[in-house]
């Protein structure tokens, strides 16, 4: 299977499921995020995992095109940037950002973006359009 198709299916389904769950269960997720960002070790672990996963995607799929394949590579680059931010930012700054983004408005809008992006990628990956 072509790597682009596989990643479109993988990210598409992941974003559809995760985005839907985040919108439906945001009251359950908000305290989890607060607790998660209360642990420096978990933030560092997430940063390292996200950096490694983003590098893997960017290296294996270096397609910068203005279509769905470019979106996959952009996801990898975004993961790299987020991983570097988690690993390099002072804990107090990350904690402050968490409080800013850990609101129902951000969960709803983020979940909606994830569902739309997931639908687009899954549609391309499974050949619906």
Distance between the termini: 18 Å
- The count of strands amounts to 0
Average pLDDT confidence is 95
Helix content: over 70%
Percent of residues in β-strands:
under 5%
* SSE sequence, one letter per element: HHHHHH
Overall geometric form: globular
Query: Structural class, judged by helices and strands?
Result: mainly alpha
Number of helices, where a helix is a run of at least 4 consecutive DSSP H or I residues? 6
Question: What is the C-alpha radius of gyration, as a whole number of Å?
Answer: 16 Å
State the low-pLDDT regions, or none: none
What is the subunit organization of this protein?
Answer: single chain
> Main beta sheet: strand number and arrangement?
none
Quick recap:
The chain has 129 residues and is mostly helical. The protein has helices at 3-24, 26-36, 40-60, 68-88, 91-101, 104-125.
Give your account of this protein's structure.
Helix content is 84%, strand content 0%. Helix 1 (3-24) runs antiparallel to helix 6 and helix 3 runs antiparallel to helix 4. It has helices spanning 3-24, 26-36, 40-60, 68-88, 91-101, 104-125. It is mainly alpha-helical.
What descriptive keywords fit this protein?
mainly alpha
Would you spell out the secondary-structure blueprint of this structure?
Elements: H1 3-24, H2 26-36, H3 40-60, H4 68-88, H5 91-101, H6 104-125
Helix pairs in contact: 1-6, 3-4
């Amino acid at each position: 299977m072509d790597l682009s198709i596989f990643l479109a299916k993988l990210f598409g389904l992941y974003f559809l499921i995760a985005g839907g769950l985040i919108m439906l269960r945001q009251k359950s997720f908000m305290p989890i995020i607060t607790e998660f960002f209360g642990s420096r070790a978990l933030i560092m672990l997430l940063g390292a995992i996200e950096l490694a996963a983003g590098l893997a995607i960017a290296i294996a799929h270096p397609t910068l095109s203005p279509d769905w394949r470019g979106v996959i590579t952009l996801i990898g680059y975004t993961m790299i940037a987020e991983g570097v931010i988690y690993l390099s930012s002072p804990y107090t700054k990350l904690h402050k950002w968490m409080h800013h983004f850990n609101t129902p408005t951000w969960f709803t809008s983020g979940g909606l973006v994830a569902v739309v992006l997931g639908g687009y990628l899954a549609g391309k990956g499974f050949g619906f359009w």
